[in-house]
UniProtKB/TrEMBL annotation:
InterPro entries: HAD-like_sf, HAD-SF_hydro_IA, HAD_2, HAD_sf, PGP-like_dom2, S-2-haloacid_dehalogenase. It comes from Caballeronia udeis. Keywords: Hydrolase. The keyword RNA-binding does not apply. SUPFAM superfamilies: HAD-like. This is 2-haloacid dehalogenase.
Length: 223
């Protein structure tokens, strides 16, 4: 049961899954055979998914991105076979455990329903809502995945916050009206045209203090 005595937290916090909470970068690097190739593959995948709009099979986009950076299609099959080796970033489980008594928790992720639910299950959390690109019918940053999560949570955008893993998310959160914390663990550059988040940090250390002051803070962009 949520702690109703805490009035400053938002009603819900929505999380990107595969970059904000999980170290998917290391998994892609292993499947690719090197860090350089893995990062190129992952960057191409992000470009494809965030430019895709209406949902096409996630696994197909992963395969297509692999081919476009010179990898064999088997790299995509290796990635899927090792999917449950995804590891949470240090500190994420503790943050979620501390946050759970105060807010409803949701995931909004760009992947298939099957793989999204498997990855979400790596956390010992009873997620209130899990929205995948497949279930929404659209890839982020189209507003519809975020809006679906808010609708299922029965909260307004101004009553919720979003924790992004990539600055591509900022296009969608800006359209949706979600205040955003960018957990930029690997030091990605802000995508051209994306709105800066209220907070950008290589860790989640500043997340709980920010959320505790959610209703009173005006928010400034920091890095």
């Amino acid at each position: 049961m949520l702690n109703q005595t805490t009035e400053t937290y938002p009603k819900a916090v929505l999380f990107d899954l595969l970059t904000a909470l999980l170290d998917s970068w290391s998994l892609w690097n292993r499947a690719a055979g090197s860090e350089a190739t893995g990062r190129a593959w992952r960057a191409e995948y992000l470009r494809l998914t965030y430019g895709c709009g209406a949902y096409v099979p996630y696994e197909e986009l992963v395969r297509q991105a692999a081919v476009q950076v010179g990898l064999r299609e088997s790299a995509a099959r290796t990635l899927e076979a090792q999917w449950l080796q995804l590891a949470p970033w240090n500190g994420t489980k503790e943050v979620l455990r501390k946050l759970a008594p105060h807010c409803r928790l949701a995931i909004v992720t760009n992947c298939s329903k099957r793989l999204g639910e498997q990855a979400a299950g790596l956390f010992d959390i009873d997620w209130d809502v899990i929205v995948t690109a497949e279930s929404a019918g659209f890839y982020k940053p189209d507003p519809r995945p975020y809006q679906m999560a808010l609708g299922r949570l029965k909260v307004n955008a101004n009553e919720a916050a979003f924790v992004a893993g990539s600055s591509y998310d900022m296009f969608g959160t800006a359209k949706t009206g979600l205040r955003t914390y960018w957990h930029n663990r690997v030091g990605l550059a802000l995508v051209e045209g994306a709105q800066a988040p209220e907070i950008e940090s290589p860790s989640l250390d500043a997340l709980l203090p920010w959320l505790r002051e959610f209703n009173s803070s005006k928010g400034t962009s920091t890095s």
